[in-house]
Amino acid sequence: MTTSAAPTKSLSGIQEKEDDVRVIPMTRRPDGTYRKERKVRPGYTPPEDVAKYTNTVLSSNRPAPAPAMSAVPSTPKTKTQLKNEKRKTKRKEEPGTESEPSTASKSESKETTKAEQDATTATTTEAVDPVDTEKKLRALNKKLRQIEQLRERQDKGETLIPEQVEKISKVEEIMAQIAELTI
Questions:
Q1: How far apart are the C-alpha atoms of 87 and 110, rounded to whole Å?
Q2: Which of 2, 12, 63, 87 lies in the 20 to 30 Å Cα band around 108?
Q3: What does the DSSP 8-state code read for residue 140?
């Protein structure tokens, strides 16, 4: 008879017995009954027993990094950082590309840029205007149909809420808007 050492126990509670047999030991349930001892298949490692990955280089005792100086970057900039920096400088230069009088104040230059923006938005709205007018016409025609339905309900004797009565009173305004858009 060979004497075996005490069975080794893993973190998950699996014990190794003689002849490399691994088992989950018998346990007692809260109601007093016992769970049977169960064999564990060879090669199975429960998640509790899997060792976590540790990077020896990062976990070694290294001195803390010195605080970065604001004037000198600690690492060279990447291509995308350089591109973004160029874009930022271009954006800053764009409003200043036109020759601005040196005597003009900042508020006057802001007014000129606002005027330029209004001009550019006016040209863009003209390009999109046919689509917008179609949408507005459809919306106004829909309102007219709804008003007609409300009138029919009112003629049948239904009582309408004040918002519906107000909507009926706006027929002339809607007709005027439709006339403006169709011209």
A1: 22
A2: 87
A3: H
The rounded distance, in Å, linking the Cα atoms of 99 and 13 is 81
Task: Look at the pTM and tell me if it is higher than 0.85.
Answer: no
Q: Are 28 and 34 within 8 A, CB to CB?
A: yes
Q: Which DSSP letter does residue 39 get?
A: E
Q: Is 18 left (phi over 0), alpha (psi -120 to 50) or beta?
A: beta
Q: Cα-Cα-Cα-Cα dihedral of 157, 160, 162, 163, to 10°?
A: -130
Whether 26 and 37 have beta carbons less than 8 Å apart is answered as: yes
The whole-angstrom separation of Cα 106 and Cα 112 is 10
Each residue of 1-34: pLDDT tens digit?
A: 444 556 677 777 888 888 888 898 899 999 999 9
In tens, the pLDDT along 47-90 reads 888 888 888 887 776 666 655 555 555 688 899 999 999 999 99
Asked whether the beta carbons of 15 and 9 are under 8 A apart, the reply is yes
- Closest CA relative to residue 147, chosen from 173, 159, 135, 165: 165
Structure tokens at 72: 């000198």
Residues 153-164 have a mean pLDDT of 92
